[in-house]
């Protein structure tokens, strides 16, 4: 084993461990790994930067803009509500929902689809007295089914496609993956409305949990007329460093200040709303000039009116908030919203809000002004789960342009009139020239951290290939699986890709597995397409945990799920996808 191979393998292993332990943002970890390979001389600058000009990565960037234009046009807003129907038969409604969701996700990014429709589905269920936990995991799974149907269904498919083109191979055609994923998806929907529906729990949502337990964490106090606190700032009055309570709102003469700054001065008769551990309310009672209301019946609806609103936000995988306390993150000053309560899995965390260490998947109940949603809808730190508002674009002409543009783009690529990259580029040019989307609007939808992650992992994949590390790993892999034949090798590739997807990210898992799989295919003298298709399906078919895929994480808290719910419902579905993939791959590409 040469020094170069040893060094690359060590760097990759350290990267995998760092990603699994979430010691920093995934894009930063992978960037450091690529930089190490460049500075050590393993990769030349040209090779290290090849990922940034990779056709697959650039296509992903263009598709972010196309999908953003369709989203803001408002053409999607009525789809789910209409597809769910009247709700007389929940299982029928489930089929009616999962079909359109899979169809949308075949051509649009599934993350915004799940974010958009989680509150719609939850409201629909609440109106019909159906537990939303019976519908939200299926919503997530349906978008995963759809993402594997087409070349543009997920960024993972495009990354693999880009690598194949780099190697001088034919990439995926628009619907090539559907040979496997369409039957798998149909069986997946059948499973979800039969066995899966029975396995899904009936639980309170995070919204219901926040509402039902509001008496346990909300309290109110009044500044007395002759109080020594009058004229003092919040900080001077000692209201910022309470041991278990957190000031979230001041009501003065009917006007509300949500996300209360430390410099705000108190006035007589101010009503102060606190959240936190009510057993520590004695701290308030000890403050002279502050009258604490006992036996209060405060409800969440009492916190909001025209100037203040409540909404939920789910902490994302790549959030800068993760592993920090609310206080350390300076949430109030950074985002202009106060954290009222935090919901994790199916329970509210009963601690002082400022001391809660946030984790991906946590659902935050936020009190903010009306401008908050507009400013932070596309935040990378959290997904806003709030009822759909009027679409940003109300011009029906632009809605038609957005929809017809994406349909034309798909047709151009599907019929091989233009390659996928050129089709997406043409679509973006049309959207800009027709002013369906602006340059400022486009920036909101481009996920730069995802693009950086893809570009860097492509460079690492090149290092694995060029140094011979991929060939060495492939040789060891073949030796281990030689007793089970080519089907055993396909199964092993599928399982390994699934494992990587669950503990790191699907794009990183795919890029690392592709050069290894190409080396395996060359050594076994089989069509490498068999392994590429297997990796594309396995990297996306993540059902067994809430952390392996963004769509699963988004519904985790709002649905009131526990980690075990994903295991119980998702593992049989993972096995189903594995069986379907291996059988079809074998008969289509290996026989």
From TrEMBL:
Gene3D superfamilies: Regulator of K+ conductance, C-terminal domain (3.30.70.1450). This is TrkA-C domain protein. It is a multi-pass membrane protein. It is found in: Membrane. Keywords: Membrane, Repeat, Transmembrane, Transmembrane helix, Transport. One of its GO terms (cellular component) is plasma membrane. The keyword Flavoprotein does not apply. Its main location: membrane. InterPro entries: Cit_transptr-like_dom, DASS-Related_Transporters, Na/sul_symport_CS, RCK_C, RCK_C_sf. It comes from Evansella cellulosilytica (strain ATCC 21833 / DSM 2522 / FERM P-1141 / JCM 9156 / N-4). The chain crosses the membrane at residues 30-49, 94-118, 139-160, 172-194, 406-433, 445-464, 476-497, 503-522, 529-549, 569-589. It comes from the Bacteria. PROSITE patterns: NA_SULFATE (PS01271), RCK_C (PS51202). Pfam families: CitMHS (PF03600), TrkA_C (PF02080). PANTHER family: BASIC AMINO ACID ANTIPORTER YFCC-RELATED (PTHR43652). One of its GO terms (biological process) is potassium ion transport. GO terms for molecular function: monoatomic cation transmembrane transporter activity. Residues 205-290, 298-382 form the RCK C-terminal domain.
């Amino acid at each position: 084993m040469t020094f170069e191979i040893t060094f690359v393998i060590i760097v990759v292993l350290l990267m995998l461990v760092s990603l699994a332990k979430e010691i920093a943002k995934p894009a930063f970890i992978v960037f450091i790994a690529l930089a190490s390979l460049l500075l050590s001389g393993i990769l030349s600058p040209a090779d290290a930067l090849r990922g940034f000009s990779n056709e697959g990565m650039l296509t992903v960037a263009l598709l972010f803009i196309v999908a953003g234009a369709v989203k803001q046009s408002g053409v999607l807003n009525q789809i789910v509500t209409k597809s769910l129907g009247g709700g007389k038969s929940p299982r029928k409604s489930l089929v009616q929902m999962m079909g359109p969701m899979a169809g949308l996700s075949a051509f649009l990014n599934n993350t915004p689809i799940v974010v958009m429709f989680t509150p719609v589905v939850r409201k629909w269920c609440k109106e019909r007295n159906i537990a939303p936990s019976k519908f939200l995991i299926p919503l997530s799974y349906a978008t995963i089914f759809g993402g594997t149907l087409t070349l543009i269904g997920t960024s993972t498919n495009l990354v693999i496609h880009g690598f194949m083109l780099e190697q001088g191979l034919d990439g995926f055609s628009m619907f090539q993956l559907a040979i496997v994923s369409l039957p798998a998806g149909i069986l997946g929907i059948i499973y979800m409305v039969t066995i899966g529906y029975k396995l899904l729990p009936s639980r309170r949502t995070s919204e219901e949990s926040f509402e039902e337990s509001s008496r346990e964490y909300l309290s109110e106090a009044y500044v007395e007329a002759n109080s020594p606190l009058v004229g003092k700032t919040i900080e001077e009055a000692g209201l910022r460093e309470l041991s278990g309570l957190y000031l979230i709102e001041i009501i003065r003469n009917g006007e509300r200040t949500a996300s209360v700054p430390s410099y705000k001065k108190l006035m007589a008769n101010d009503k102060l709303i606190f959240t936190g551990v009510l057993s520590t309310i004695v701290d308030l009672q000890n403050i002279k000039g502050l009258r604490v209301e006992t036996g209060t019946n405060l409800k969440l609806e009492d916190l909001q009116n025209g100037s203040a609103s409540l909404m939920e936000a789910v902490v994302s995988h790549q959030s800068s908030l993760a592993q920090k306390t609310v206080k350390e993150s300076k949430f109030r000053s950074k985002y202009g919203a106060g954290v009222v309560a935090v919901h994790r899995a199916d329970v509210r965390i009963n601690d002082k809000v400022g001391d809660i260490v946030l984790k991906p998947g946590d659902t935050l109940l936020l009190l903010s002004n009306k401008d908050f949603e507009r400013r932070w809808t596309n935040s990378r730190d959290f997904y806003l789960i709030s009822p759909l508002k009027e679409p940003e674009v109300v011009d029906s002409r632009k809605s038609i342009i957005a929809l017809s543009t994406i349909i034309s783009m798909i047709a151009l690529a599907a019929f091989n009139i233009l390659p996928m990259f050129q089709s997406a580029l043409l679509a973006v040019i049309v959207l800009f020239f027709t002013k369906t989307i602006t340059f400022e609007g486009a920036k909101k939808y481009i996920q730069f951290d995802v693009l950086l992650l893809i570009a860097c992992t492509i460079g690492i994949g090149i290092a694995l290939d060029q140094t011979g590390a991929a060939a060495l790993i492939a040789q060891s892999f073949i030796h281990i699986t030689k007793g089970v034949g080519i089907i055993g090798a396909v199964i092993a590739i599928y399982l390994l890709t699934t494992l990587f997807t669950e503990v790191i990210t699907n794009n990183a898992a795919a890029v690392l597995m592709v050069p290894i799989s190409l080396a395996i295919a060359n050594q076994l003298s089989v069509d490498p397409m068999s392994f590429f298709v297997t990796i594309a399906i396995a990297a996306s078919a993540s059902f067994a945990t809430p952390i392996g895929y963004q769509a699963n994480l988004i519904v985790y808290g709002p649905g009131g799920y526990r980690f075990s719910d994903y295991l119980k419902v998702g593992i049989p579905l993972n096995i189903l996808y594995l069986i379907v993939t291996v059988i079809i791959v074998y008969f289509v590409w290996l026989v």
